[in-house]
Design a protein that fits this description.
It is a single chain. The chain is of the alpha+beta class. It folds into 2 domains: 78 residues, Outer Surface Protein A, domain 3 (Alpha-Beta Complex), CATH 3.90.930; 82 residues, Alpha-Beta Complex (Outer Surface Protein A, domain 3). Helices cover 22% and strands 37% of the residues. The chain has 3 helices and 13 strands. Strands 11-12-7-13 form a 4-stranded antiparallel beta sheet, with helices on one face. A 3-stranded antiparallel beta sheet has the order 1-6-5. The chain has a 3-stranded antiparallel beta sheet with strand order 2-3-4, covered by helices on one side.
Protein backbone atom coordinates (compact mmCIF):
# COMPACT_ATOMS: atom_id res chain seq x y z
CA UNK A 1 0.00 0.00 0.00
CA UNK A 2 1.12 3.55 -0.71
CA UNK A 3 2.96 5.40 2.05
CA UNK A 4 0.83 8.46 1.38
CA UNK A 5 -2.43 6.57 1.82
CA UNK A 6 -1.31 5.13 5.18
CA UNK A 7 -1.61 8.59 6.76
CA UNK A 8 -5.06 9.18 8.25
CA UNK A 9 -6.95 12.34 7.24
CA UNK A 10 -8.01 14.41 10.28
CA UNK A 11 -11.61 15.62 9.98
CA UNK A 12 -12.52 18.86 11.84
CA UNK A 13 -15.66 18.86 14.00
CA UNK A 14 -17.57 21.22 11.70
CA UNK A 15 -17.09 18.94 8.65
CA UNK A 16 -19.59 16.19 7.83
CA UNK A 17 -18.60 13.15 5.75
CA UNK A 18 -21.22 11.15 3.82
CA UNK A 19 -19.84 7.90 2.39
CA UNK A 20 -21.68 5.77 -0.14
CA UNK A 21 -20.45 2.79 -2.09
CA UNK A 22 -19.52 4.81 -5.17
CA UNK A 23 -18.77 8.36 -3.96
CA UNK A 24 -17.85 10.60 -1.04
CA UNK A 25 -19.62 13.83 -0.12
CA UNK A 26 -18.00 16.33 2.23
CA UNK A 27 -20.01 19.18 3.79
CA UNK A 28 -18.40 22.05 5.65
CA UNK A 29 -19.00 25.67 6.60
CA UNK A 30 -17.80 26.92 3.19
CA UNK A 31 -19.72 24.48 0.98
CA UNK A 32 -20.15 20.94 -0.29
CA UNK A 33 -17.80 18.85 -2.46
CA UNK A 34 -18.52 15.46 -3.99
CA UNK A 35 -16.17 13.02 -5.71
CA UNK A 36 -16.70 9.52 -7.21
CA UNK A 37 -14.61 6.71 -5.73
CA UNK A 38 -12.78 4.08 -7.77
CA UNK A 39 -13.87 0.50 -7.30
CA UNK A 40 -10.44 -0.49 -5.88
CA UNK A 41 -10.60 2.12 -3.07
CA UNK A 42 -12.34 1.76 0.30
CA UNK A 43 -12.77 4.84 2.53
CA UNK A 44 -13.92 4.46 6.14
CA UNK A 45 -14.37 6.72 9.17
CA UNK A 46 -12.54 6.03 12.41
CA UNK A 47 -13.19 8.46 15.37
CA UNK A 48 -12.38 11.81 13.77
CA UNK A 49 -10.18 10.45 10.98
CA UNK A 50 -10.65 9.05 7.48
CA UNK A 51 -8.62 6.03 6.40
CA UNK A 52 -8.04 4.70 2.87
CA UNK A 53 -7.61 1.03 1.95
CA UNK A 54 -7.40 -0.92 -1.30
CA UNK A 55 -9.26 -4.06 -2.39
CA UNK A 56 -6.27 -5.58 -4.17
CA UNK A 57 -2.48 -5.45 -4.06
CA UNK A 58 -2.06 -4.32 -7.67
CA UNK A 59 0.23 -1.45 -8.60
CA UNK A 60 -2.73 0.46 -10.06
CA UNK A 61 -4.70 0.22 -6.80
CA UNK A 62 -1.60 1.27 -4.86
CA UNK A 63 -1.19 4.39 -7.02
CA UNK A 64 -4.90 5.21 -6.78
CA UNK A 65 -4.90 4.95 -2.98
CA UNK A 66 -2.29 7.70 -2.60
CA UNK A 67 -4.03 9.89 -5.15
CA UNK A 68 -7.43 9.51 -3.51
CA UNK A 69 -5.95 10.22 -0.07
CA UNK A 70 -4.52 13.51 -1.37
CA UNK A 71 -7.77 14.45 -3.15
CA UNK A 72 -9.93 13.75 -0.09
CA UNK A 73 -7.52 15.64 2.20
CA UNK A 74 -7.75 18.65 -0.17
CA UNK A 75 -11.55 18.40 -0.14
CA UNK A 76 -11.65 18.42 3.67
CA UNK A 77 -9.29 21.42 3.78
CA UNK A 78 -11.31 23.21 1.09
CA UNK A 79 -14.71 22.97 2.79
CA UNK A 80 -13.26 23.94 6.18
CA UNK A 81 -10.69 26.67 5.33
CA UNK A 82 -10.74 27.15 1.55
CA UNK A 83 -7.94 27.81 -0.94
CA UNK A 84 -6.60 31.03 -2.40
CA UNK A 85 -4.06 32.08 -5.02
CA UNK A 86 -2.66 35.56 -5.47
CA UNK A 87 -1.63 37.02 -8.82
CA UNK A 88 0.29 40.23 -9.50
CA UNK A 89 0.20 42.34 -12.64
CA UNK A 90 3.61 43.79 -13.48
CA UNK A 91 3.82 46.33 -16.28
CA UNK A 92 2.94 49.92 -17.11
CA UNK A 93 -0.82 50.28 -17.58
CA UNK A 94 -1.61 46.70 -16.53
CA UNK A 95 -4.69 46.62 -14.31
CA UNK A 96 -7.56 44.40 -13.22
CA UNK A 97 -11.05 45.09 -11.92
CA UNK A 98 -13.48 42.48 -10.59
CA UNK A 99 -17.23 42.88 -10.95
CA UNK A 100 -19.99 40.45 -9.91
CA UNK A 101 -19.26 37.69 -12.45
CA UNK A 102 -16.48 39.14 -14.64
CA UNK A 103 -12.85 40.12 -14.31
CA UNK A 104 -11.81 42.99 -16.58
CA UNK A 105 -8.12 42.89 -17.49
CA UNK A 106 -6.04 45.50 -19.28
CA UNK A 107 -2.77 43.81 -20.22
CA UNK A 108 -1.27 45.97 -22.95
CA UNK A 109 -3.32 44.55 -25.81
CA UNK A 110 -5.37 46.73 -28.16
CA UNK A 111 -8.52 45.43 -26.45
CA UNK A 112 -9.53 44.73 -22.83
CA UNK A 113 -10.02 41.11 -21.75
CA UNK A 114 -13.27 40.06 -20.06
CA UNK A 115 -12.73 36.87 -18.07
CA UNK A 116 -15.94 35.07 -17.05
CA UNK A 117 -15.67 33.94 -13.39
CA UNK A 118 -16.79 30.29 -13.05
CA UNK A 119 -19.21 29.08 -10.38
CA UNK A 120 -17.63 28.33 -7.01
CA UNK A 121 -14.83 30.89 -7.47
CA UNK A 122 -14.60 34.36 -5.92
CA UNK A 123 -12.18 36.92 -7.32
CA UNK A 124 -11.16 40.06 -5.44
CA UNK A 125 -8.97 42.94 -6.59
CA UNK A 126 -7.71 44.84 -3.50
CA UNK A 127 -5.53 46.99 -5.76
CA UNK A 128 -5.48 47.42 -9.53
CA UNK A 129 -2.39 45.22 -9.85
CA UNK A 130 -3.36 42.43 -7.45
CA UNK A 131 -5.85 39.59 -7.99
CA UNK A 132 -6.95 37.16 -5.25
CA UNK A 133 -8.72 33.98 -6.35
CA UNK A 134 -10.63 32.05 -3.65
CA UNK A 135 -12.64 28.84 -3.66
CA UNK A 136 -13.19 25.47 -2.00
CA UNK A 137 -11.97 23.29 -4.89
CA UNK A 138 -8.16 23.33 -5.10
CA UNK A 139 -8.08 22.14 -8.71
CA UNK A 140 -10.57 24.80 -9.84
CA UNK A 141 -8.72 27.63 -8.05
CA UNK A 142 -5.43 26.55 -9.62
CA UNK A 143 -6.94 26.20 -13.09
CA UNK A 144 -8.61 29.62 -12.99
CA UNK A 145 -5.38 31.28 -11.87
CA UNK A 146 -3.44 29.46 -14.61
CA UNK A 147 -6.01 30.59 -17.22
CA UNK A 148 -5.68 34.23 -16.11
CA UNK A 149 -1.87 33.97 -16.08
CA UNK A 150 -1.92 32.50 -19.61
CA UNK A 151 -3.26 35.78 -21.06
CA UNK A 152 0.14 37.44 -20.51
CA UNK A 153 2.87 35.22 -19.07
CA UNK A 154 5.86 37.00 -17.51
CA UNK A 155 8.45 37.67 -20.17
CA UNK A 156 12.11 36.93 -19.36
CA UNK A 157 13.70 40.32 -20.16
CA UNK A 158 11.73 42.86 -18.12
CA UNK A 159 9.48 40.51 -16.13
CA UNK A 160 6.27 42.15 -17.36
CA UNK A 161 3.07 40.11 -17.28
CA UNK A 162 0.79 38.25 -14.90
CA UNK A 163 2.66 36.26 -12.25
CA UNK A 164 1.90 34.37 -9.07
CA UNK A 165 2.76 36.38 -5.96
CA UNK A 166 5.40 33.86 -4.84
CA UNK A 167 6.80 33.26 -8.34
CA UNK A 168 10.40 34.21 -9.00
CA UNK A 169 11.21 35.34 -12.54
CA UNK A 170 14.85 34.93 -13.54
CA UNK A 171 15.59 37.78 -15.89
CA UNK A 172 17.82 37.27 -18.92
CA UNK A 173 20.56 39.66 -19.81
CA UNK A 174 19.98 41.71 -22.95
CA UNK A 175 22.32 41.63 -25.94
CA UNK A 176 25.37 43.82 -25.69
CA UNK A 177 27.26 45.32 -28.60
Amino acid sequence: MSRVSNNPIPVPENVEIILTEHDIKIKGPLGVLEYPLACEIIVYKLDGFLKIKTNSDSQHANALSGTFRALIANMVHGVSKGFEKKLQLVGVGYKAQATANRLNLTLGFSHPIDFEIPDGIKIETPTQTEIIIKGIDKQKVGQVSANIRAYRKPEPYKGKGVRYSDEVIILKETKKK
